[in-house]
Amino acid sequence: MTRALDRLLRPRTIAVVGGGAWCKQVVLQCQRMGFAGDIWPVHPSADSIEGLPVYRGIDALPAAPDACFIGVNRTATIDVVAALAERGAGGAVCFASGFLEAQAEDASGADLQSALLSKAGDMPILGPNCYGFINYLDGALLWPDQHGGAPVDSGVAIITQSSNIAINLTMQARALPLAYVVTAGNQAQTGIAEIGMALLDDPRVTALGLHIEGIGDLRQFEALAKRAAALGKPVVAIKVGRSDQAQAATVSHTASLAGQDAGAAALLNRLGVARVDDLPSFLETLKLLHVAGPLPQNTVATISCSGGEASLAADTGLSLGVTFPPLNDRQKTDLRAALGPRVALANPLDYHTYIWRDVPAMTRAFAAIADPDVAITLLIVDFPRADICDPSDWDCVIAATIGAAQQTGRRYGMVATLPELMPEDVARTLLAAGVVPFSGLGEALAACQAGTFAPQDPQPITLPNQGGTAQLFPEAEAKSALAGHGLRIPGSIRCMSPDDVAHSAAQVGFPQVLKGEGIAHKTEAGAVKLNLTTADETHAAAQSMGASSFLIEEMVTGVTVELLIGVINDPAHGFVLTLGAGGTLTEILQDTVSLLIPATDTEVETALNSLRIAPLLHGYRAGPAADMPSILRAIRAVQDFTVAHRGDLQEIEINPLLCTPDTAIAADALLRRTL
Predict the structure, then answer these.
(1) Confidence of residue 246 (pLDDT cuts 50, 70, 90)
(2) In sequence order, what E strands does 368-526 have?
(3) What backbone torsions phi and psi does residue 207 show, to the nearest 5 degrees?
(4) CATH 1.10.287.610 fits 2-182, yes or no
(5) Would you identify the CATH topology of the domain 561-673?
(6) Would you state the pLDDT for residue 249?
(7) Which of 299, 355, 379, 384 is the most exposed place for a label (fewest CB within 10 A)?
(8) Are 195 and 208 in contact (CB under 8 A)?
(9) pLDDT of residue 322
(10) Domains 2-182 and 295-450 share a fold
(11) pTM for this structure?
């Protein structure tokens, strides 16, 4: 299908079906952009549209069109798609709405979409309910509205499910060269991942941006990431919306701690797709990737002629996760030679204005701070408003930055702290010279952090099930099931009454723990009693709980740290494995990290070491370290159980996993499966 999309997205002949303002706009857009191929308007009665002769139907066209914009109502759209497919067309944009996306208001929408797909067969279609696409490389615009772009020789490609977002992105005045802007609509047939692979195959595309509402086919999305890695083209995403399905699992701490977005975040991270939180950072990250490519690390040096800007850069970078390496001896020596004795040398650097307008001196200073330990050097420069000021006095900093980049061969960017203070003409000049023109300090540093994402080659994720009403297993049964896959559990006896507890307590040994069964959050409900040392104490505890059945367990001592291991089935993204601080402080600390199953031991250990409680795992303040191999075995056991029961598993939680210097034991277990 990807090869077929090439013909649709890079057409030499375009048909436009319909005579309304939308269709006329498509013809005008192609003419204005200098499309070199043929444009064939199709209408049953009009004689000409925008000066072009009109054909009465698809069968009257001189040949099967490579691409067709269908601007008629939803019922007629199905007939046009059928005619195009029969003729052997390359593909179509279905502008009409009222298909599956409207099923809540119109029950016939689902049937109409099924009919549309049936008539399309193997012919690619975009939408329905989408604006289509803009190919700025070839001047092919199957696009029924205004846009703000211009022809380019190379640039980034953007795919979005929102046509309005797409329009807004074309209006950016940040000098970002757009090669393609494609809308996917409701992805009835062709999804974001499939479109993305076709765009990445164009050698003129430097990076791919995804505005995602829902991911759809997980295997195709994995294939997209793999293709991007193979081509060396980075992908950045802004993910909106949430996975409601994942929140169907609300019994455990895991579900509330992981949050609705954990699956999407874990998926993008696993596949090496950089993620940003807002559209300005999205555009600035794409700009960085287009000009400089991915950064090898998140280290930055900034230079400004203001101490206030230097402090602002340091504080902003700290909150966004970038680092400012201290200056080394070589940098200090070269900077001192360029700046003289009156400038305090540091990173971020305030170089004052002693050398302003002295382009050779400025060039030497800007070149001096660049270093192999610095991924990118950023000049902080806010340009005055050209409508009421004279910006020519800032030409020196442009020339010096470009000169330093050419002299050192290292990555440079110029950042305006306020986006509107980076003029578009200046940005284009910088971009043409290989300097990244950033609009906004926060956006620039967010881009530097996001731009460090490296391609991954992970194992395929374990595909989720579609959920459903799940049964909560008694704790003893949950533990027994997990123990069958290698999870270590305490010695225990299950009792069906307080009297049974009294008779059985001594068999477990003391000290011991008593738990009331059938209660998800036992500690909060008073259904857990610890450190019971006699049968009478255990019996009295059972009488106070009000539970109908009980679990007596050996009490684990010498605990170094308590962990949480949780799994939830997220039908949109996979099985989300959550690791974090466990025990009674779980929700207070909210110290967790999420991965997708399967995760390797290396990935798991890296995730554990990212927790705030990680020092406890390794022996905090001369205390004993936890046994990491035992912890990894416990997590593997949970993963193995998940994979074995992926068809019906909804939720697992081990909380706490009691970690000692020589073992890791599951003190509590929750299990929900659809049976």
Answers:
(1) very low
(2) 376-380, 412-416, 436-439, 471-472, 492-495, 512-516
(3) -160, 165
(4) no
(5) D-amino Acid Aminotransferase; Chain A, domain 1 (3.30.470)
(6) 43
(7) 384
(8) no
(9) 95
(10) yes
(11) 0.91
